[in-house]
Amino acid sequence: MAENSVVLGMADLLVMPAPVKLITLGLGSCIGLVVFDSFAKVAGMAHIMLPDSRGLRGSEKVGKFADTAVPALIEEMLKKGATRPRIKAKIAGGAQMFSLPGASAEFLTVGAKNVKETKTKLARLGIALVAADTGGNKGRTIEFSTSNWVLKVKTLGKGITEI
Prior knowledge:
By secondary structure, this protein is of the alpha+beta class. It has one domain: CATH 3.30.1330.200. The chain has three helices and ten strands, in the order E-E-E-E-E-H-E-H-H-E-E-E-E. The chain has helices spanning 66-79, 105-108, 110-124; strands at 4-8, 13-17, 20-27, 31-37, 42-48, 88-93, 128-134, 140-145, 150-155, 159-162. Helix 1 runs parallel beside helix 3 (110-124).
């Protein structure tokens, strides 16, 4: 059976049964988080923009922040038949995209903070992070296929890595 390809936008979060190819474009400081249970044949992806939602009004998309996206993604996985011990995670992104004279360190370290918060949330939920392609200063596009459970990371100027 052919895979359906689904493209997620910024702050989107989605869980789907196999066969599916989940894609998100334009990861700079954002994190592309993939979670999957190959036994239950279900996978999910979130395009995380910021580390945490504290201090923001509740009208934001749950997928926008690491502190809300990670638990929401796991909850959706469990609803679709995954079990927590079998769920594995892969992440990509978290680059430092800009070097602006006079810009605050807070602004420049969003990527690193996104990586840290995503990893922290996964660990707190007992989800194994099995692969990561993070940091640097280049944008990425990712594709996760349930045909082989591989995350293909396309990095600008670097080529394709499979994790």
